[in-house]
Specification:
With 346 residues, the chain is of the alpha+beta class. It contains seven helices and 21 strands. It binds flavin-adenine dinucleotide.
Length: 346
């Protein structure tokens, strides 16, 4: 008998299965290992919201633990996933320069916000300079997840298929799926949770995001951010630009409309030549109150959910995975704002 079945191997499933390995638990994972929100992401880790110069929820607190986990996985697999890089936030006015400096001086922010710099990037006009971040960068999420899929496949722990909810049998102390028996099941399906009959009622809104992959005649640029970001794609000579936020369309089909929006914004930032080499779309698992969705089913304690990673899955997933594991195995409390109990009717 397994300890856990895990459904979904995006950043959520990656982080949760890493905790299971760390604790020597027996598990099996269901995921077709195709594109998902995680592989569509830009892979930026940065706790500061660069629109308002505020800190994202728990981001500064969780980031060091997350980076440790990605680094550990690099050491274990001998592959590179983490690319530390500053983000250059283009400042639009003298007022924004003041705001940057004021924010960078606040306690806790000095670890992530550096000074203002004037630097020349051909095609980019920045008369007010750039606010520079530190302790930020990129994770090559596609390589991270492909490596995990292959690794679990080799260990015979991957079922490369969709989990069929109708086949799940729930007993008093165990669950069964075909021939597979386990003590618990953790659902980490990202926006796919909407189809889950046990947790699909939770208020996940989902926000579609699209990015363009482009070629520029320049290499070695950092991440540059204004209305859009321009980020180097790890281990390639291309860049990503994005992302859009769309609340109505819940498909993962790239659209002409997003392409127009993104090229329009890119051309406001950068006036030089470029060619588009690709376009991808994914649905961010965003929640009505912008907090993760963790916890057990009110009727079936063998069923748990790990979701709602929203727009900053990279930073949040490793620490939250550990919290959920400790909740399930040792009865430790979840952060109340992440516990799905907040949505239960009283
Ligand atoms: C355009 C874009 C840019 C982004 N940029 C960033 C960024 O720079 N930094 C950052 O931190 N975050 C970013 N995000 C957000 C980040 O991608 C998400 O927070 C994160 O990927 C969510 O991970 P997840 O594992 O919950 O979901 P997913 O990555 O969607 O993974 C869920 C997995 O579950 C599988 N699944 C679903 N249903 C089933 C089933 N029935 N059976 C088997 N498998 C199933 C799916 O196939 C999928 O592989 C971005 C998102 C988008 C869309």
């Amino acid at each position: 008998m397994y300890d856990f079945i895990v459904v979904g191997l995006g950043l959520g499933g990656w982080a949760f299965t890493r905790v299971l390995d760390e604790n020597r638990k027996r598990f099996v994972v269901f995921d077709p290992c195709r594109d998902n929100a995680s592989t569509a992401s830009a892979g930026v880790y940065n706790p500061v919201i660069l629109k308002r110069f505020t800190m994202a929820w728990k981001a500064a607190e969780f980031l060091p633990y997350g980076m440790l986990q990605y680094r550990r996985y690099e050491m274990e697999t001998g592959r590179r996933f983490v690319y530390p890089l500053p983000i250059y936030r283009k400042l639009a006015s003298a007022g924004e320069q003041n705001d940057w400096q004021a924010a960078a001086g606040r306690p806790g922010f000095e670890q992530y916000m550096d000074g203002i710099r004037f630097e020349n990037f051909p095609g980019i006009e920045a008369p007010f300079g750039f606010g520079i971040t530190k302790n930020t960068g990129l994770v090559d999420v596609r390589a991270l997840l492909q490596t995990r899929c292959r690794q679990l496949e080799k260990r015979g722990l991957l079922m490369p298929e969709k989990f069929d909810y109708r086949k799940l049998q729930i007993g008093a102390n165990k669950i069964r799926y075909g021939e597979i028996e386990a003590r618990r099941i953790v659902f980490a399906e990202g926006f796919g949770m909407k189809r889950n009959p046990f947790f699909g009622h939770l208020p996940m809104t989902g926000t579609k995001g699209e990015t363009l992959r482009i070629r520029l005649p320049y290499s070695g640029w950092p991440v540059i951010k204004s209305n859009v970001f321009l980020a180097p794609v790890p281990a390639s000579d291309e860049y990503l630009t994005g992302a859009t936020y769309e609340w109505e369309d819940k498909t993962t089909t790239p659209t002409d409309e997003a392409r127009k929006i993104l090229t329009g914004k890119l051309e406001k930032l950068y006036s030089g030549p470029y060619t588009i080499s690709g376009q991808t779309a994914g649905i961010r698992p965003t929640v009505k109150d912008r907090r993760p969705l963790l916890g057990v089913h009110p009727e079936y304690p063998g069923l748990a959910v790990f979701n709602g990673l929203g727009t900053r899955g990279l930073i949040l997933a490793p620490r939250l995975a550990k919290m959920l594991f400790e909740h399930l195995e040792f009865g430790m409390d979840l952060l109340p704002e992440t516990d799905i109990k907040r949505w239960e009717k009283s």
